[in-house]
Amino acid sequence: MTRGLIGGAAVGTTFNRGLEIYKKNFVPLLLATLLAVVVGGISCGICTAPLLCGVYAMILAAMRDGNATLKAGDVFKGFQKFVPAFVSCLVLAVIYQIVCTVLLIIPILGWIAVIILALAVFPAIVAWAQLLVADQNASVGEAIMVPIKLLRDKRFWSIVLVAFVASLVGGLGAIACGIGLFVTLPFAFCMIAAAYEEAYGAAAPAAVEQPASEPPAAEAPAL
Predict the structure, then answer these.
(1) Share in percent of the chain as helix, strand, coil (round to 5)
(2) Digitized pLDDT (tens) for each residue of the chain, 223 residues in all
(3) 2 assigned to some structural domain
(4) Is residue 55 a part of any domain in this protein?
(5) In 140-157, which positions are buried (b, 16+ CB within 10 angstroms) versus exposed (e)?
(6) Of 94, 87, 75, whose CA–CA distance to 46 is shortest?
(7) Distance CA 71, CA 25 (A)
(8) What is the pTM of this model?
């Protein structure tokens, strides 16, 4: 079972937190992302989702332990969750294609909806699925259904906004002949991971209610 959301996420907070983590772990996260992209490309995308799970696991480890030492090779730990990572992303991609095909039949409004799906909603759903697999050992079904069901929760739409900004930031690297993507993508991942932490773990666990302490008994009057 996956945990429920505690709250939403703010773009400013996630940007600053993501930047802080990225600057502190620049080299390992850069190399890990490079490995994920290259190996994912060589494998025709088959290994991409598990490796991105590995990247997210590294980022979460750095966020939760300021003294954590990341290694680029840690990205391959994502293969330990290959099946849920790969299958969930594959199914979500198929669902996305079906929804887009239907929406494209509708002039103008349908096209606008497809653009919104491509830039914000789909990236948020897929990233959430990967984070759930990486952090909460979500099953294939949970990784698919939980982020889709969260679309009914208004708090999740603040995370969709973060994913949209992260997508824009990540895409900035394409300006430098695509090479800059390897620099901007890790930061985008850090932003989304920060949103995940804010939504699930930023707030302290609910405190157990303690019975109200009774007022001290009045002293008996001296005889």
Answers:
(1) 75, 0, 25
(2) 777 788 889 999 999 999 999 999 999 999 999 999 999 999 999 999 999 999 999 999 999 998 889 999 999 999 999 999 999 999 999 999 999 999 999 999 999 999 999 989 999 999 999 999 999 999 999 999 999 999 999 999 999 999 999 988 888 877 766 677 888 999 999 999 999 999 987 533 333 333 333 444 444 444 4
(3) no
(4) yes
(5) bebbbebbeebeeeeebb
(6) 87
(7) 9
(8) 0.85
Tokens coding 55:
């990247």
CB 75 within 8 A of CB 85: no
**CA proximity to 133, closest of 86, 91, 176:** 86
Concatenated DSSP letters for 116-146? HIIIIIHHHHHHHHHHHHHHH---HHHHHHH
Q: Hey, what amino acid is at 61? A: A
**What per-residue confidence (pLDDT) applies to 96?**
95
CB-based contacts of 145: which residues, under 8 Å, 6+ apart?
Answer: none
57 lies in which domain range? 11-200
Per-residue model confidence (pLDDT) at position 176: 64
Tell me how far apart the 2 most distant CA atoms of the chain are, in Å: 94
Residue 191 within any structural domain of the chain: yes
Establish if 5 belongs to a structural domain. no
Give me the number of domains the chain comprises. Answer: 1
Q: Mind giving me the DSSP string for 20-83? A: HHHHHTHHHHHHHHHHHHHHHHHTTTTTHHHHHHHHHHHHHHHHH-TT----GGGGGGGGGGHH
